């Protein structure tokens, strides 16, 4: 059962990717449009999120209700979300409904009505989304970490600010759409039981005459990350940390992933063993790797009672720093087993595959084959992880906390 | 591609189920053990959760660390959770690793060490799990709703109470295991690329000599549900409601599912349209059907700013009550498309299938075929939904809220 991946670039720059999976009946559709919140202008923070909600409220020949009914009638499970660089439109349905769904998505992306009379309920929802963060300290601490760790515009939050969202006009939302929605930089990926030639022809028909637009300059500025504490009478202290790693484009990428596997991948991983199992400090502790094209970051979180918070941070940082002193062959074997097992799970899911091929193309300009990823995992050694950590040690860690009292980063 | 489901009951009562999925490389293992929190004795609320954590800390020939390493080395992604009637042990890995994983699970279920020196960290984690609810008002309001709506012992929460968890002894945990872990009432389901005869032989070998135990009496008592308000200075008011429906064993079951589909299934569903789209009252609003063997319930949740909370409840209740006045054919078509689409997604996932066949056996004593479920969905009509609502109207709704001020259930 060989992997069947297809790619085609339209003359206007839109990239179409497909992975044919013959033994499934479902298919997943995934659009990445270069309209993430990094593009939200000053004074309009949150405009991307408002656009992402308003954009499905009528498009082409259908009003808001007809559009929802049409997608629901095709059994499309869908979601629109705003990332830093991209806005994502995701839908999952039966493979035979893909052509009809794509026709609707072409209207949504290219011919949305953006109705003035629906702006107010959309603004109201967007404001509530910001207010709801006060009841979700774990989500809030991660947002506050990103705000302080990343340089602008990478540090913007999709939710924006209450002030900016309330001040938005329908004109501003329409300008935002016209400026950013364009075929160049847009990636459409489809995974499932689809026919490539027919899909390609339909996408040419739906998107071939879409006019390219200018790419805005989103080069990150220079900035020094800042730690911080947000005082709040929460039951737990919510701890978030970040420090630099390598991006997915870097030769050290798999070694970096293995390093966080040793720390957090599986129940026998070091952080779980030391923080959770042995000391009972908290259930939720872990680190994960996050990548942009030009930079990678290790992001960590732990939530624990205020009386144990400093100890939790101390033990966590000690484990992170100790990693460079050595990793055992057993640990690497375990990490490889986990990575391979999750690779195979992903191979079997149309949603995972549609997401992966789009993400690969976005970051690398190509799709990694299973064989390539498998070979990279197979080739991992304890030495590679230690060498990587010698080049990219844990340093300059940014710490952000929400809770009754601030913590001290251990020396 | 016909569906291949196998079943075998061991002489001690353990039920083995398997679904063979030839085109995948993964497999999922799912044990339901009749040791849910309904069994937690007075004065020991939370003992089931403590047992579920402690039970993987060494079993058979392996100590805690060796056991974690062994499962991680097989690439098993796993989770242990405590429900009302059952404790669930779930693991997902490569099909070829299933025999090795089952050998380990047989040790975990039958020969856990339950080490005294690990009780304290486990208690500490369990206490934190309870404390963490204070920072998660959405989770807390659902727990408080269940506590007030269901009769004992269905209304117990797996987390238990801080007082009881702190007072637990290792002796009590061992007694709890010895009393409840037994083959009769246990269901093991496996889905993926597995060979039935070999699987059956291995399960006979691993579990055939397990001695049956007594089934405790868990018959629910009589009780009248009570509404309530928990005052808290949250940013949002968290609203939870419940009222009786039919269980999965009832002839009206699919009509009941279609009724909540009309309300909450898809973006054009009534609650989303009226509460979210038109009025912008809140993002998260919805109802879902929850079933035990003997009773079904509609559970609803909405979270919104305090100034909009009463209006949100009023609009939601009006929509729920209006449903009996009629459902359009278009709405039923849309609901059928959504149900069929999600049925097909489930067919393609080993984890979903392992969960579904075990749940079917637990509730119905048999596994529903895709054809049966598909025929039931195809057979749905608007008339069936309205007839169902005439027999089971919205009444006696229990309302529980967390927020700055209580709400009034509309007449």
Describe what you observe in this structure.
- 2 copies of one chain form a homodimer.
- With 411 residues, chain A is of the alpha+beta class.
- In chain A, 43% of the residues lie in helices and 20% in strands.
- Chain A has 15 helices and 13 strands.
- Chain A has helices at 47-54, 64-73, 98-110, 119-131, 137-149, 162-167, 170-180, 196-207, 253-264, 270-278, 306-322, 329-347, 350-364, 370-378, 382-391, and strands spanning 4-9, 15-20, 26-33, 58-59, 62-63, 77-82, 87-94, 187-192, 228-231, 236-245, 285-291, 296-305, 398-403.
- In chain A, the strands form 3 sheets. Chain A has a 6-stranded mixed β-sheet, with helices on both faces. In chain A, strands 9-13-10-12-11 form a 5-stranded mixed β-sheet, sandwiched between helices. The first copy, chain A, has a two-stranded antiparallel ribbon with strand order 4-5.
- In chain A, strand 11 and strand 12 form a beta hairpin.
- In chain A, helix 3 runs parallel beside helix 8 (196-207) and helix 9 packs across helix 15 (382-391).
- Chain A is globular.
- The mean pLDDT of chain A is 96.
- The interface between A and B is large, with 74 and 74 residues.
SSE inventory with pairings:
The structure is a homodimer of 411-residue chains.
Chain A: E1 4-9, E2 15-20, E3 26-33, H1 47-54, E4 58-59, E5 62-63, H2 64-73, E6 77-82, E7 87-94, H3 98-110, H4 119-131, H5 137-149, H6 162-167, H7 170-180, E8 187-192, H8 196-207, E9 228-231, E10 236-245, H9 253-264, H10 270-278, E11 285-291, E12 296-305, H11 306-322, H12 329-347, H13 350-364, H14 370-378, H15 382-391, E13 398-403
Parallel strand pairs in A: 2-8, 9-13
Antiparallel strand pairs in A: 1-2, 3-7, 3-8, 4-5, 6-7, 10-12, 10-13, 11-12
Helix pairs in contact in A: 1-4, 1-7, 3-8, 9-15, 10-11, 12-14
């Amino acid at each position: 059962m060989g992997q069947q991946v297809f790619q085609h670039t339209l003359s206007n720059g839109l990239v179409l990717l497909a992975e044919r999976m013959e033994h499934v009946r479902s298919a997943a559709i995934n659009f990445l449009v270069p309209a993430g919140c990094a593009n939200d202008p000053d004074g309009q923070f949150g405009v991307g999120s408002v656009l992402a909600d308003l954009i499905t409220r009528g498009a082409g020949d259908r009003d808001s209700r007809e559009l929802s009914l049409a997608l629901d009638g095709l059994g499309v499970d869908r979601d629109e979300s705003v990332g830093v660089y991209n806005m994502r439109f995701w839908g999952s349905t039966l493979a035979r409904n893909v052509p009809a769904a794509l026709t609707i998505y072409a209207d949504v992306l290219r011919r949305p009505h953006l109705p003035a009379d629906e702006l107010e309920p959309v603004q109201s929802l967007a404001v509530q989304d910001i207010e709801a963060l006060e009841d979700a300290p774990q989500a809030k601490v991660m947002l506050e970490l990103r705000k302080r760790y990343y340089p602008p515009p990478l540090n913007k939050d999709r939710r924006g600010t209450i002030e900016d969202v309330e001040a938005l006009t329908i004109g501003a939302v329409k300008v935002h759409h016209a400026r950013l929605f364009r075929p160049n930089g847009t990636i459409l990926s489809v995974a499932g039981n689809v026919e490539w030639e027919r899909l390609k022809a339909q996408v040419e028909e739906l998107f071939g005459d879409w006019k390219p637009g200018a790419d805005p300059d989103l080069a990150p500025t220079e900035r020094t990350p800042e730690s911080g504490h947000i005082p709040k009478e929460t039951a737990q202290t919510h701890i978030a940390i970040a420090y630099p790693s390598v991006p997915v484009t870097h030769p050290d990428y798999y070694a970096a992933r293995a390093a966080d596997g040793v720390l957090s991948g599986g129940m026998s991983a070091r952080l779980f063993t030391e923080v959770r199992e042995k000391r009972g400090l908290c259930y939720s502790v872990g680190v994960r790797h996050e990548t942009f094209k030009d930079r990678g970051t290790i992001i960590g979180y732990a939530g624990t009672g205020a009386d144990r918070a400093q100890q939790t941070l101390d033990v966590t940082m000690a484990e992170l720093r100790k990693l460079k002193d050595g990793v055992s062959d057993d640990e690497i074997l375990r990490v490889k087993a986990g990575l391979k097992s999750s690779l195979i799970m992903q191979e079997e899911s149309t949603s995972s595959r549609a997401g992966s091929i789009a993400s690969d193309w976005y970051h690398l300009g190509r799709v990694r084959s299973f064989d390539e990823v498998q070979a990279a995992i197979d080739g991992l050694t304890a030495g590679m992880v230690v060498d990587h950590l010698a080049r990219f040690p844990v340093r300059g860690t940014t710490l952000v906390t929400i809770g009754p009292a601030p913590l001290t980063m251990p020396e």
